[in-house]
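User: Thanks for the earlier help. One more: GntR family transcriptional regulator. Can you show the sequence and predicted structure together?

Assistant: Of course, both are below.
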Amino acid sequence: MASLSAREQAYQTIRSRIITMELKPGDPLNDRELAEQMGISRTPMREALIMLNIAHMVDIKPQSGTHVAPIDLKRMELEQFARFTLEKEILNRVRGRLTDQQEQEYRQVIENYRLLEADLTQPNRETHLLELDNQFHRKAFEITGMEAHFDHMLSELQHVERIRKFSLQTNENKSVCAAHTRILEMLLHGTADELGEALESHLNRYKLSVEQARSVHPEYFTEE
């Protein structure tokens, strides 16, 4: 963060707080208060909020002020389709070609997730679970030397990332280790179609999280 400009720091900080649901849909955003919290001037904070508005994570309306935007379900589907298309291509480039070391690295990430999932006492547990999930999916991009593509893709998943926070609080999350294991097995021994089906089934799990979250907080979502 030290190498980033004040505007970029503000953007990343507010974006992270929105994704982790520390700032929830509909919450007001006061540029002066946020700037004071970060120890920066109001100008870069305003610029960061404008960037977040362009990314559809913040609503800026002259008459009602600035608020955290609702989770846009249509944009979420577009994001998820783009992710599936790119990740499937990358996975197929390493399918059937994993070295023993690479396979063990995959299995270690799965085991680390399983252990953390079972330990409810760990601080920042949900954040670390998300990091391990990303670590698993980033592995194929690393193997192919395309990790920059994964990082860019993740930065563009504005609405999908927000629902992942909900998934960690539902029974649906308990399927992650099994889903990751199935993807790995298809990487090792499956066909391209089988690998695609395993990935699609895993990535589409967010729909269950949406259903559960909407039943509790319908005001958090929009389909405009």
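User: Great, one quick takeaway?

Assistant: The radius of gyration is 19 Å.
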